[in-house]
Amino acid sequence: MDIAFIAQIFPKLLAGLPLTLLLAVLSLLGGGLIALGLSGLRASSWIGARVADFYVYIFRGTPLLIQIFLIYYGLAQFPAVRHSVLWPLLREPYVCAVLALMLNDGAYTSEILRGGLRAVSTGAIEAARVSGMTRLTMLRRIVLPLAFRQALPAYGAEITSMVKATSLASVVTLMEITGIARAEVSETYRAIEIFLCAAAIYLVLVTVIARAVDWLEQHLSPYRRPTGARSLA
Amino acid sequence: MKPITVRLTDIRKSFGGQEVLRGVDLAARDGDVIAIIGASGSGKSTLLRCIPLLEIPDQGEVSVGDAQIRIRDSGHRFSRAERQTVRRLRGQLGFVFQSFNLWPHMTALQNVMEVPLHVQGRPRAECREEAEAMLAKVGLADKFDAWPAHLSGGQQQRVAIARALAMRPRALLFDEPTSALDPELVGEVLRVIRALAEEGRTMLIVTHEMTFAREVSNQAIYLQDGRVEEQGPPEQVFLDPQSERCRRFVGMSRGEG
């Protein structure tokens, strides 16, 4: 392998890192809001719950790549979309990619949130009710903190899978890490070096995120560790 | 006569067509320790849970201190003002559950401080000082920073009692406080409850510990099929009940014990 070439390609790929991170952060933020919305919808009524279930079913049951294609290429077929005020936005590959990623992430995150909420024991909730807490205080002090702790490991996995999923944005011309890598390969035909470099960058990113989530989990739920293990950690 | 702290009037409650409470009246005066006994399914836990409206009666009136809620029918929806009254009513009670129900993400001290600090809005330093005093009182001065998961059942229940005390309640309600405990841990919890009775606190205790109930209470209530079957001083209810069914029940428990 050509070390000099790798040293040369690496900074080029790193230039795509900010866009990769931005795509991930925006889709996680948007997805988080969608997930909260879906939770509210689920709690609102029977119909609301069915609508939320259907949303999750569709977005988890179909490939993200096809969702991106549908939004990027598909929306343009509708004259109503092309003539709407949103068209200047929906025309942008960047907006389409974020939209697809965030709709997809919302479906997964809502299921994670649902699992976390379900794990909050009725005993903890009864103790809160009986103390005279308002619903809001109960949500803020007891229910959400417990649900969040419960959901954290699964959500950590969702964060890393979203970071990796941003690479799909390259198919709609976005020049994030994978997009740059593909462009370089088509110029130099050195697929192995370039894609391995790109993979290494994702690997480091994912490792850092997983470690951070682990740390947060230990920090928030020290009681989950057996008492004896604390000195070893 | 001392003033009435907790009063239930004509409480009725059904679960799925099954009548669990069929018109129960009860009044606890300041300083009363009332033992509520009865077989499983007699409605005694449901009755206790109706006081802080953890179960909403189908009909009846609950009053605690200066808060009063009246329910006329089972489809009752609380208005905003009523919800506020319910919170005020709950705020004057300390409830101790069979399964402790500590908040697992808080240490012992945080559990005890939570309501005074975040519900009653008292100053943090005062809350902390009082929480520490309450934990010391139940014999857990060395467990301030322990997580519930790292405490024994008896210790968790004592934290739960300290948590109830820290609310400065007018009355303490115990729902089978030792039923979930290993036999060797029952004593430490009963000792704490006994000490509270001796302080003159108003308490209602649902329990299967007959000897304890007789010794600690100044009034006993025997429930059968959702009705008060026998009521009076503990000597009468436990040793010389008028009702045949109560006589059989306490006789059986004596035979076992």
Q: Characterize the biggest β-sheet of chain B.
A: 6 strands, mixed
Low-confidence stretches of chain B: none
* Strand and helix order of chain A: HHHHHHHHHHH
Q: Helix content range of the residues of chain B, please?
A: 25-40%
Helix fraction bin of chain A: over 70%
Note the overall shape of chain B: globular
What is the global morphology of chain A? flat
Summed up:
The complex is a heterodimer of chains A (233) and B (257). With 233 residues, chain A is mainly alpha-helical.
How would you describe this structure to a colleague?
The complex is a heterodimer of chains A (233) and B (257). Chain A is mainly alpha-helical and 233 residues long. Chain A has one domain (3-219): MetI-like fold (Orthogonal Bundle), CATH 1.10.3720.10. Chain A is built from eleven helices and no strands. Chain A has helices at residues 3-14, 17-44, 46-61, 64-74, 79-82, 87-90, 93-118, 122-130, 135-165, 177-188, 191-220. In chain A, helix 2 packs across helix 9. The longest helix of chain A has 31 residues, at 135-165. Chain A starts with a helix and ends in a 13-residue tail after the last helix. With 257 residues, chain B is an alpha/beta fold. Chain B has two domains: 4-92 and 170-256, P-loop containing nucleotide triphosphate hydrolases (Rossmann fold); 101-168, no CATH class. Chain B has nine helices and ten strands. A six-stranded mixed β-sheet of chain B has the order 6-7-8-3-9-10, sandwiched between helices. A four-stranded antiparallel β-sheet of chain B has the order 2-1-4-5, covered by helices on one side. In chain B, helix 3 packs across helix 4. Chain B starts with a strand and ends with a helix. The A-B interface holds A 121, 123-124, 126-134, 137, 141-142, 145-146, 149, 220-224, 227 and B 52, 54, 87-91, 93, 95, 97, 99-105, 114-115, 118-119, 147-150, 167.
